[in-house]
Amino acid sequence: MKAIVLAKPNNLGGTLMKAIFYTHYGPPDVLKLEEIQKPTPGDDEILVEVHAASVTYSNLMLVRGEPFVGRLYFGLLKPKLKIPGSDIAGRVEAVGRNAKQFRPGDEVFGDLSNCGRGGYAEYVCVPENVLALKPANISFEEAAAVPEAALVALQALRDKGQIKAGQKVLIYGASGGIGTFAVQIAKYFGAEVTGVCSTRNLDMVRSIGADHVIDYTQEDFIKNGQRYDLIVATAGYRSIFDYKRALSPKGMYVATGGSMAQIFQGLLIGPWISMTGRKKMGNLLVKPNKDLAFMKELIEAGKVKPVIDRRYTLSEVAEALRYYGEGHARGKVVITVDQNNNTSL
Description:
The protein is an alpha/beta fold. Helix content is about 25%, strand content about 25%. The chain has eleven helices and 16 strands.
């Protein structure tokens, strides 16, 4: 039976918790581990004791305040959201009077990006509709790796890409957080999958199901003569016209990440290419948490397994973001939240 860990009482009779807090934009060093008031759930909320969270590109950009246009929403001169962190897994501690979906003790996971974030903390209050029951056969750390990356991969392949069994699918950035899920999900749908990655990641990408792997440091997938029915670009940068040349006559290209140039080309040039020919090209607009239950089924059926590169503690979030920002993570980077062992930065 799990021991109950109580947050530290404060002088006002309430309780304190530890959380990663920041008051201005900048490199990960702006993040500090602070003791703040433990939240209380509203009528339609649940209080989650966070056991793990994951590092995502959106949180890194949130801390940096980049791209600048994002500040129109998150705060022009200083961040409105003081506690980053969106992908979490944990245990329900309390429920509001109107919350009906979960009970105290339930193990849950989800993406908080549309409800104020706050996942890099020991506790967080969230609307119950952003969470789902955690897959029973994986750890909290593995579950925290799922919500954003897996749903981006799923929706890029199934919804935007209209993937079909027997198609030739290329995953560019196959060893990253989204890429490792994309390879496995494409195989689940019956595709013939080619993963593009660096030399050190070839064996790992093969191990998660890729039929073919291309070392981008040794071979240019544009020049090998192969054409693909669906290309999902999750990382790095290649010109959108390079991807266009690698598509089959009625192929589809979906950008889910990578450099700003890659994202903006998909946003601005992709629709023009799609209107002027049979090839379709564009970016994915992900719907957070829409398919959590479906991913839970795939994971519990053994069809998909999260790949974790490194684990950090809550007090090491700045270091985790720095490592992630280097762009060489193999799978996901996760934060293990242990209330007994969090120390000051």
